[in-house]
Amino acid sequence: MAKFNKVAQKSDIENGKMKEYKIDGKTLVIANVDGEYLAFDGICTHAYCALAGGFLDSYTLTCYCHGGQFDIKSGEVLSLPPPAPINVYPVKIEDDDILIKL
Ligand code: FES
């Protein structure tokens, strides 16, 4: 059964920034949007570019490769070309720790 895993600390990720993590063979990104931490797949569904290298504007992430956009709260595609959404993951905060349920 999926459980929450400690992945990072809040102090690791500044407001408006994101970071990539490798967990259990998955590439994930954690983003900090005004103190809210969101976790999602780190690889674009279009041509597999690393989403941590993209641009974050509130909850909209733009992939640096071809400009595809995702809503990082829902994983939905906001702008093509990505053919499919990304997975998003539940986040729990315990003191300074960020835990992700995979
Ligand atoms: S790889 Fe992300 S939009 Fe093409």
Q: Cα-atom Rg, whole angstroms? A: 13 Å
Distance N to C terminus? 9 Å
CATH architecture type: 3-layer Sandwich
Shape: globular
Portion of residues in beta strands equals over 45%
Beta strands, count: 11
Question: CATH topology, which one?
Answer: Rieske Iron-sulfur Protein
Cofactor: [2Fe-2S] cluster
GO molecular function: 2 iron, 2 sulfur cluster binding; metal ion binding
Family: Belongs to the bacterial ring-hydroxylating dioxygenase ferredoxin component family.
Keywords: 2Fe-2S, Iron, Iron-sulfur, Metal-binding
Description:
With 102 residues, the protein is mainly β. It has a single domain, classed as Rieske Iron-sulfur Protein (3-layer Sandwich), CATH 2.102.10. Helix content is 0%, strand content 48%. It is built from no helices and 11 strands. It has strands at residues 4-9, 18-23, 26-33, 36-41, 55-57, 60-62, 69-71, 77-79, 88-89, 91-94, 97-101. The strands form 3 sheets. Strands 2-3-4-9 form a 4-stranded antiparallel beta sheet, with no helix packed on it. A hairpin with a 2-residue loop joins strand 2 and strand 3. It starts with a strand and ends with a strand. The model has no long low-confidence stretch (mean pLDDT 97). InterPro entries: Rieske_2Fe-2S, Rieske_2Fe-2S_sf. Belongs to the bacterial ring-hydroxylating dioxygenase ferredoxin component family. This is Rieske domain-containing protein. Residues 5-100 form the Rieske domain. Pfam families: Rieske.
